[in-house]
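call fold(seq) -> tokens
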Amino acid sequence: MSAGQRQGQAEKGEAETVEQRVEHPDGVAAATNATRVFLTLVSAWFVPHGLQIVLYPWLLAVYLHLPPEQVGLGQMFLQVPGLFLVLWAGSLADRVDTRQLLGRLHLIAAVPPLALALTLWLGLFQFSVLLAYGLAMGACVAFANPSRDAMLATVAQQNIQRVVVATTGVQFGVQVVGYALAMLAGLVGPAPLLVVQSAIMASGAFIARRLPTRQQSSGSESGAKRSRGSLFQGFSVVVNSPQILSVMLLSLAGSVLYLGAFFVLVPLLIRDYYGGGATEIGMVNIGFMAGTMLMVWMLLRGGGIRRQGRAYMAANLWGATFALSVIATGVSFAVMMGVVAIWGAAAGIGMSMARTIIQEHTPESHRARVFAVYQLCFMAGGPVGSLMMGYLIGLLGPLEAARLPPIGMVIVLSMVFLFTDLWKLEARQQPAG
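ret:
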């Protein structure tokens, strides 16, 4: 037997032991239909998520009128569950039927907003109740994100970058619906909006049933046996892939420097500097998403990006770094909305490129676990950044605090440019037109 034949048989045997198999009964037509169903499911998650993005900080900063330190603490509680759960969530998503898992997560995530609405109606609402809500929703997000990213590869087949870009566009685009609903909080109150959030989230359980199934192959080990040691296998893939590792490190830096700025600094600026409320918070978020949607549309029309690493690094520089530098000068609200839209456009490129690089360099058998590590990097800095930003605003004021994240990101990007090859990274798959 020749060396080539032996290698072919070895590759075939390895393929037969892959943990997950993808079922596409009708080829391309089934994949196209599965993509539509998947994007509908994404909508059922991110419309409620968009509502929460506006309503949660509004409850903290305006409804309860808390000081900056407590606003930062409240945002930290929303983000911190991912630090402890996301690796387990990724391991679980690689070992079970992802379709069923996503359906159950939608049902579970429908409960906290309904419970929060009940406390408002009964007059029991207070800061500690909102913190409990944040922990519950943060846990749901920790499980849903790696599961959804693993399912994306199932429906995308050979056109990963295009489906990733489309998913990013839908994910951010439908959030505008949630923002628009949340802007009504000052008019109708938060409780009815929380009921709407719960109902839309629950609808995802029925949509998930139409997704293709990702099941364990018959030759795989039992879930109980494989669970031992599988939790940190995603880290092994990341450490052994310079491309993925560079993306993870930059994502971690971005989460520390920018999440706190967006979720703590922006609402407090709107309350204390611009004298606004839920409407203005919603308008800023809509501006962000408008920039994202425009950029995603351009990416889809242009057929994708070949120099993915370069695009990812540049997006981090001319997005939030530029926007916060301008905001720190005390510009008008209209100008602030404009630079936040530029921030959103950069985010459209950055998130699409990061997820595409990871998808293309990760084996199918470990995809959910690697995306769990990505989510961990994205979440790890969030609680730190939110808490830190709250205290910096209390100490320096919002405009002075806005000057610090851009300085940090310029330093990080310089180090990534000098000590990694991310700037030279190009697409493995030819971008489709």
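Residues 30-212+232-424 form a domain with the Growth Hormone; Chain: A; fold (CATH 1.20.1250.20).
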